[in-house]
Amino acid sequence: MGNQADFQSKLPAGGTNIFTIMSKLATEHKAINLGQGFPDFECDEKLKELVAKYVTEGKNQYCPLAGLPQLNQTLSAKMERLYGMPIDPSSQICVTAGATQALYTAIMAFVNPGDEVIIFEPAYDCYTPQIQLSGGIVKPYQMTYPDYSIDWDKVKGMVNDKTRMIVINTPHNPSGTVLSKEDMQALEDIVSDTKIIVLSDEVYEHLIYDGEQHQSVMRFPRLFEQSIATFSFGKTLHATGWKMGYVVGPEYLVSEFKTVHQWNVFCTNSFVQFAIADYLGDPKNYEYLPSFFEKKRDTMNELLADTPLIPKIAKGTYFQAYSYESISDMPDREFAKYLTTEIGVAAIPMSPFYTEDPGDKVIRLCFAKQESTIEAAAERLMKLKG
Ligand code: PMP
Ligand code: GLN
Q1: Ligand 1 centroid to 171 CA: how many Å?
Q2: How confident is the model at residue 12 (pLDDT cuts 50, 70, 90)?
Q3: 79 vs 37, 330, 378, CA distance in Å?
Q4: Of 56, 137, 215, 284, which residue is the least packed, with the fewest Cβ within 10 Å?
Q5: Which ligand 1 atom sits nearest the alpha carbon of residue 100?
Q6: Distance 153 CA to ligand 2 centre (A)
C-alpha cells in the first residue's frame, strides 16, 4: 500500500442520499418502487424522435454557455405566457445540467463563508450539503405535518445582517404543498430593501392540482428583482435521466451565475437543447401536465383509501405524504424499510429532509407511475389492514 493523501472532508457527515438507499433496497427486495421520484413510463415519442434527429443531423458540438439561443427564446416566450414576466432570452436565462447543478452553482455564486441561508424543512436533500460546501450556515425553519405551513413573522425573526439567501420550493418536495400568493407577498415584504437573494426551486411548476396557480417568483416583480428561479426538464418531460434544467433571474444575478457556471460546466449537451426548443414551443406539450398527474394522484388515493395510510392531499409535485400513525409507532426510516422489505412497496421517510427529526409518522409515495404500477402497489399495501 502506498502513502495515502491526507485531506479533510468538506462534507464530514458524508452519507448516501435516501433516494439511493431506498431504490437499492427496493431492487434487492423486488419491491415496487414508489420511493425515488421518477416516472416509470416513457417520455413522448415525438420528443425522442427530435432528440434522435438532432444527434443524426450532427448537433453534437458545444453550444453557447447560457444555452442554445432558440431554446432560451422558447423558454422566454413560455414564461411570459405563464407568468406575465418578460424575460430577456440572452441575458436572463442560463441552461444547466439539471436543477441540482443550477442550485449548486447559484449557492456557490452568492453564498460566502459565514453567510446564513434560511431553508424550509422538510427540505429537498441537496440544499444543506450545497450550502455547507460554500461555507454558508444553514438556518432551518421547521414545517411539520399536517400543514407544513410557514409563519412569516417567525421567518422575519430569523433574518439578520448575516442572512444572504432564502431558499424556497413550491410546489414542495417532499410534502406536496404549495405556497400561496399571500406566502409570496409575505416573503417579498421580508426581503425588500435587504441584500437577501431568494433561490426559488420551481422544478414542479407544472405539477399543480385542484385548479391552483403556480406562484412563481416571476409573478412578483419586486421579489423577482432579488431572485434566481430553478427549473428541471426532467420533471416537465418525464426524462429525469437527461439532467437538464435552467435558471431565470434579473440580469445582474444571472450574469454572476454565468461566471461561476462557466468554470464548472461551461455548457450542457446541445442536441437535447435543440429538441426541447422545438418541443416546448408547443404549449400543448406542457399544458396537459396538471390534469395528467392529478388523475394519477386521485387514482392512488382512491386505491389506498381502504388502507390505514392517511393522505395529506398533494396540491403539487408527484409526491403524496401519508401518515401511518394509526398503525405503527416505528420511526419513519424503520417504517419505510418495513414497507419495502415486508410489504413490497418502497417509500421515502420524511426525517432525512430535516436537521432535527420532528418525529412525524409520515412517509412519501411517488405517483408518477403507470396505473398498473399504482394498482399493484395498492394491492400490496392492503396487507397493512392486518
Ligand atoms: N429540486 C427538487 C425539489 C427536486 O425534487 C429535484 C429532483 N427531483 C431537484 C431539485 C433536482 O432536479 P434535477 O433532477 O433536474 O437535478
Ligand atoms: N428528486 C427525486 C426525489 O425527490 C430524487 C432525485 C435523486 O435521486 N437525487 O425523489
Answers
A1: 12
A2: confident
A3: 25, 45, 38
A4: 284
A5: 16
A6: 31
Query: How remote is the CA of residue 100 from the centroid of ligand 1, in Å?
Result: 6
List, in sequence order, every beta strand (DSSP E) within 289-329: 310-312, 319-323
Where does residue 41 rank: exposed (0-12), middle (13-18), buried (19+ CB within 10 A)?
Answer: exposed
List residues near ligand 1 (CB under 6 A). 37, 98-100, 124, 169, 173, 201, 203, 232, 234, 240, 243, 245
Give the list of residues 6+ apart from residue 350 with CB closer than 8 angstroms, or none.
122, 145, 174, 321, 332, 360, 362, 363, 364
What is the per-residue pLDDT across 164-200, written as a single tens digit (0 to 9) for each? 999 999 999 999 999 999 999 999 999 999 999 999 9
Specify the CATH number of the domain 45-281: 3.40.640.10
Burial degree of 359 (CB within 10 A; 0-12, 13-18, 19+): middle
Q: Which ligand is nearest to the CA of 364?
A: 2
Amino acid at 374: I
Architecture label for domain 16-37+287-381: Alpha-Beta Complex (3.90)
Q: Looking at the CA of residue 174, tell me the nearest atom of ligand 2.
A: 4
0.90 cut: is pTM over it? yes
Give the whole-angstrom CA distance, residue 207 versus residue 209.
Answer: 7
Number of H helices, E strands in the chain: 15, 13
Report how far residue 70's alpha carbon sits from residue 280's, in angstroms, rounded to the nearest whole number: 11
Per-domain boundaries in the chain: 16-37+287-381, 45-281
What's the rounded Cα separation, in Å, for the pair 32 and 55? 34
Give residue-wise pLDDT tens across range 74-109: 999 999 999 999 999 999 999 999 999 999 999 999
Predicted confidence at residue 119, as pLDDT, reads 98
CA distances from 324 to 300, 328, 329, 373, 385 (A): 16, 6, 8, 21, 11
Write out the DSSP string of 110-170: H--TT-EEEEEES--TTHHHHHHHTT-EEEEEE--TTT----HHHHHHH--TTEEEEEEES
Give the Å distance between the CA of 36 and the centre of ligand 2.
5
**Which has the closest alpha carbon to 288: 378, 206, 385?**
206
